[in-house]
Write a structure and sequence with these properties.
The N and C termini lie far apart (51 Å). Helices cover 36% and strands 12% of the residues. It is globular, with a radius of gyration of 22 Å. Helix 7 packs parallel to helix 8 (166-175). The chain has 389 residues and is α/β, with parallel strands linked by helices. The longest helix is centred in the last third of the chain and has 27 residues, at 309-335. It has 2 domains: 25-37 and 259-357, no CATH class; 41-257, 3-Layer(aba) Sandwich (Aspartate Aminotransferase, domain 2). It has a 7-stranded mixed sheet with strand order 1-7-6-5-4-2-3, with helices on both faces. It has a two-stranded antiparallel sheet with strand order 8-9.
């Protein structure tokens, strides 16, 4: 007997998404932009209090939603919790995108927008960041006249770190009269800008957030969508009844209640960002930093010439030394002891190490158009993998 499964053409025409490599827990972990110091100790304490009875029940959402909404400064009705940041993006395809309709993106950017568009058999309209990684604002405003179903903007952008501010966003929202504008703020804590205060005056604005980065909860998968109550009510219609697990809710409540830990991590990343950019300059690697929250570089195109072998070796030594110094400080601070046998002096207290606020990943899934001339490649473009490290 032969069985013929009625698989959708959009699925047959694409490759399987391949998760990033495993076996990383005992390594340096500079590739996925994870929180490298770990979550707040309060998270572990909160998880340890979960009872067997609680684990046997389906989660209750009203209390956690109310408390997490307070963290964002919104009403509970303006917050939707999702199973990670990627799921926070998927809901817009479930709600607004039908086969054959279009979405608008600006590349290079987080490729999950393209990933979902291909699964949903949507048309993908693509604009490009400029030669200095500037956002194509005028092109976006012109493209919105064609009324794409959704415009996705990573802000700060992954992988360039480009940041849109209030006036630029206002111009986009004014032009988006028939388009859902999704501002993906996975790294908002590092940029000091968020579009959340604009949701009540703009019913087409949706802000996607994640607790995987600054809160250090990537393993538990909790994301969020923030929007005005009326618009978010439409998105809720596409959601299952129990999308988020109890452990993620408990951990997130504990994490957002410990704001000093998250802020210390943000401060450490910003401090290290300047050091990282300076080291790239020493290697003659071109960087783009104007009006950005991160450091983006053309790793394959040095400004003058390729770094000499001794330069590459020196950079590896410098990075290794810097990491060990910071790791000693973190251990001394969090565990009241230093690493044994390291031989390095600890860094100043409250210093943390992390990669820059742009990520990337292997993307072996699809057939793609030609890449932009900047040297960026889509193989280095998932939220999680940094092509420079």
């Amino acid at each position: 007997m032969k069985v013929h499964l009625p698989v959708r053409k959009a699925i047959l025409n694409r490759r399987t998404y391949e998760a990033p490599a495993e076996g990383r827990s005992d390594k340096l972990r500079l590739d996925f932009n994870e929180n490298t110091t770990g979550c707040s100790p309060a998270v572990r304490r909160a998880l340890a209090k979960l009872t067997t009875k609680q684990l046997a029940m389906y989660p209750e959402y009203q209390g956690p939603t109310r408390r997490i909404a307070r963290y964002f400064g919104v009403h509970p009705e303006e917050l939707l919790l999702t199973n990670g940041g990627d799921d926070a993006l998927r809901v817009f395809f479930d709600t607004f995108v039908e086969p054959g309709t279009s979405i608008l993106i600006c590349e290079p950017t987080f490729p999950m927008y393209r990933y979902y568009a291909e699964i949903y058999d949507a048309r993908i309209s693509v604009l490009r960041y400029g030669s200095e990684m500037e956002f194509p604002l005028e092109g976006v405003i012109a493209a919105l006249r064609k009324k794409p179903r959704v415009l996705f903007i990573a802000n700060p952008n992954n992988p360039t770190g480009t940041l849109l501010q209030g006036e630029e966003l206002r111009r986009i929202l004014k032009a988006a009269t028939h388009t859902a504008v999704v501002v993906d703020e996975a790294y908002a804590e590092f940029s000091r800008f968020t579009a959340i205060p604009s949701i009540r005056k703009n019913s087409q604005l949706f802000v996607a957030r994640t607790f995987s980065k600054v809160a250090g909860l990537a393993a538990l998968r909790l994301g969020a969508v923030v929007a005005c109550e009326e618009s978010l009510a439409l998105v809720r219609r596409a959601m299952p009844p129990f999308p988020v697990n109890l452990a993620a809710l408990v951990a997130t409540e504990a994490a957002v209640a410990d704001r000093p830990t998250m802020q210390a991590y943000v401060n450490g990343v910003k401090k290290l960002r300047a050091w990282f950019a300076a080291e790239l300059v020493k290697l003659n690697v071109k960087t783009f930093r104007a009006k950005r929250s991160g450091t983006y570089s053309e790793a394959g195109k040095p400004r003058n010439s390729a770094p000499r072998p001794e330069q590459r070796h020196r950079a590896r030594i410098c990075a290794h030394h810097h990491w060990n110094a910071i790791r000693n400080a973190a251990v001394a601070e969090n565990n009241s002891k230093r690493m044994e046998g390291s031989g390095l002096n600890p860094a100043p207290k409250r210093t943390h190490y992390a990669t820059q606020s742009q990520d990337s990943s292997q993307d072996q899934r699809n057939r793609h158009p030609a890449e932009p001339a900047s040297g960026w490649t889509r193989k280095g473009a998932h939220r999680h993998r940094n092509p420079l490290l």
